[in-house]
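pinging the channel bc i need a second pair of eyes. not urgent but kinda urgent?? the chain im working w is below, pasted from the shared doc
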Amino acid sequence: MNDTPLLTHLSLPEEALMFDLEALYACLQTIPDQRHRRGLPYPLASLLLIGLLAKLAGQDSCRGMAHWAKLRSHELSQLFPLKREKMPHYSTWSRVLGHGVEPSAVEHVLGQFFVTAAREAEPQRGSIQLALDGKTLRGTIPLGETRGVHLLAAYLPKQGVVLAQMRVDEKSKEITHAPKLLTALDVRGVVVSGDAMFDQRDLSIQIVQANGDYLWTVKDNQQGLREEIEVLFQPHRKRAGTSALPTDFRTARTVEKGHGRLEKRTITVSSMLAEYSTWPELAQVFKLESQRTDALGVTKTELRYGVTSLPAHVAHPKRVLDLTRGHWGIENGLHARRDATLREDHAQVRMGHAPQMLAVLNNTVLGLFARQGQTNVAHARREVAYHFDKALAALVA
């Protein structure tokens, strides 16, 4: 029996899918199948791609994916030459995602699929940003408890792609898993950004030794470093008959208005601390002041400090400001979309690796849409659902 899918014959317009389904299927075929080899009516690669197509078309849960596939069983069984026309029950989806595949293997294969398009051949220093942050899948928190499945992700904010993801015991353990997560990635030319949890000496050294750079927010977990930065940026009174103390302070500002808010950001950057601070590979420090005025005229001011290994000739103040803002793309572009649009926190499947695997599929959906420049994910999913059904009907006819 020919088990080659007829993906090349599936005619989809570019507004529906702007990536190579055949290439994606070929990547999925390299993932090891951990199921017992006897009596497997559904190849793992076919199941994963069908599940991904269901999610692209608007389904969020194992039950929804199973029902979507069942309604299209005749067409899908021809698109993916299967031993039977019947599609698997939703409990089969849960078992396959929970025990039939290792999430790290899927993460690696899909990360390679995306990184080919996302990376330059020889990226310049500091040209790519990689944001680190974690997320708890709230639907996996048992009743009466406070802990559920927590995932640490390495995300390219500009490209909208997750390169790697790892399950950690709890949020406080993110820092112990971050070195392992980054070891599997090529960080040459990359600026790794993170909140204050990640401003650790060993992690900073690891990144620079791998020919990357870091940019961290600094809070009281590194009290000595924070105090050094605060003292540096404190205004100094000029005494009568004396000149002002020399500084190398450089600034950049942005003003944005939208969504009923006026936001002003001012960053001040200096290289002076690098001359005497013991923080490893330090090149610049910065002070970021943000003012947000809402529609009622109420203004809130936030002051943050940070460090980076990027020298001044590589990262001018505007670039440092862009990187600090870009880091929060992991919240807005990834976590918020997984929650609000893909309803990830509503999924209560807890079997084995299934919660993590659903998150992997969600990351892939968002990455595929980001590659074609789609910013409205809900709109994009409706387009895929419409055009995919038309293409399936035409293929079968």
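so The chain has a mean pLDDT of 88. and Residues 377-396 form the longest helix (20 residues). — does that match what u expected or am i reading it wrong
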